[in-house]
């Protein structure tokens, strides 16, 4: 079932819609047309009780004021670009710099701050946004479509498509903050996490990759087996904000997250080469929806994407999109109870 209704208006008067997807098991995914934000993700247990497993807000004003990208679709480029500069067709292009001298998550008013068009396609919904040539410095008008579907096996299936009129850079991601305890605990420290990656990208003081690709073995980045978050989080001063190089596992998940009681599990599947694990250590005293979490570690993010600062590293998989190409990637969150 798909229900679409008005939610609230932005401060400049644009109507924002709420899109509710409900499957036969009672699972619900609530999106907003503002930022293609995932406002709620309600997962039913075997008794029919539902856990809302993502952080978010009740009102639009809070999303407009948010600076943590909560629940957003991030673009035109996810993560960081050093010195807010790229080079295309042998020309250097200056982007907006919104994190010191660097660009983070597409600039000041990126995709997560835009009102998207919504179309009900019957079994799925598509959110559409046209980014103007030169927006945040990126060349080429970019048409982006984001498709969402909720299947009856409790899987939220998502895919991105994008087309450009000029050679440009595209790297889209989702920025959900997951807490599978549904506010029952003050943090995700009791969660277990597994990331199927043999390598990771080391970073400098500005959280920019050095260009190296190093093995995770015998490092704090070795999360190839289920590990309790509290057991490894303190091994990294300042927490984790690192990109993992995903293994090619075919039908195996890129990551698995388990609740503190180990009953609810989420498997993340994606087609992108990297997964940014952000432990959100700086999130303190989060107040939103029915979850008031003092923190730290109120939630964590698993952002499937291409590598950060890819335009400045020839050894990274390219994020260049040409006019004769279709940008296409898929992502899904599958939930089940043991």
Automatic annotation (TrEMBL):
Active site: 175, 303
Keyword annotations: Calcium, Carbohydrate metabolism, Isomerase
Domain of life: Bacteria
Cofactor(s) the record lists: Ca(2+)
Ranges that cross the membrane: none
GO cellular component: cytoplasm
SUPFAM superfamilies listed in its UniProt record: Galactose mutarotase-like
One of the GO BP terms on file: glucose metabolic process
Annotated beta-D-galactose binding sites: 79-80, 175-177, 241
KW Protein biosynthesis (keyword) present: no
InterPro entries reported for this sequence: Aldose_1-epimerase, Aldose_1/G6P_1-epimerase, Gal_mutarotase_sf_dom, Galactose_mutarotase-like, GH-type_carb-bd
Sample GO molecular function, one term: aldose 1-epimerase activity
Subunit structure: Monomer.
Alphabetical list of PANTHER family matching this protein: ALDOSE-1-EPIMERASE, GALACTOSE MUTAROTASE
Protein name per its UniProtKB record: Aldose 1-epimerase
């Amino acid at each position: 079932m798909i229900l679409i209704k008005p939610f609230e208006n932005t401060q400049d008067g644009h109507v924002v819609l709420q899109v509710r997807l409900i499957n036969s098991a009672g699972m619900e995914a609530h999106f907003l047309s503002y930022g293609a934000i995932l406002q709620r993700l309600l997962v039913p247990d075997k008794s029919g009780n539902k856990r809302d497993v993502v952080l978010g807000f009740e009102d639009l004003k809070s999303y407009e004021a948010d600076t943590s990208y909560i629940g957003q679709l991030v673009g035109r480029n996810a993560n960081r670009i050093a010195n807010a500069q790229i080079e295309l067709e042998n020309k250097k292009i200056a982007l907006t710099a919104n994190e010191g001298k660097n660009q983070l998550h597409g600039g000041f008013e990126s995709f997560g701050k835009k009102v998207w068009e919504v179309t009900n396609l019957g079994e799925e919904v598509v959110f559409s946004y046209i980014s103007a040539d030169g927006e945040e410095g990126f060349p080429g008008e970019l048409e982006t479509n984001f498709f969402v579907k909720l299947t009856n096996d409790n899987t939220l299936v998502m895919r991105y498509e994008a087309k450009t009129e000029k050679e440009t850079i595209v790297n889209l991601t989702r920025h959900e903050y997951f807490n599978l305890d549904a506010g029952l605990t003050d943090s995700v420290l009791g969660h277990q996490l597994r990331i199927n990656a043999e390598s990771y990208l080391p970073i400098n003081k500005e959280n920019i990759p050095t260009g190296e690709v190093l093995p995770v073995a015998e490092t704090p980045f070795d999360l190839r087996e289920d590990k309790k978050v509290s057991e490894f989080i303190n091994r990294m001063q300042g927490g984790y904000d690192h990109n993992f190089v995903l293994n090619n596992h075919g039908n195996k998940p890129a990551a698995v997250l388990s609740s503190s009681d180990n009953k609810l599990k989420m498997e993340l599947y994606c087609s992108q080469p990297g997964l940014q694990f952000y432990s959100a250590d700086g999130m303190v005293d989060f107040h939103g929806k029915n979850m008031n979490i003092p923190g730290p570690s109120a939630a964590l993010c698993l952002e499937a994407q291409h590598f950060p600062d890819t335009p400045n590293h020839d050894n990274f998989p390219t994020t260049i999109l040409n006019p004769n190409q279709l940008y296409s990637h898929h992502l899904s969150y599958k939930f089940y109870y043991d």
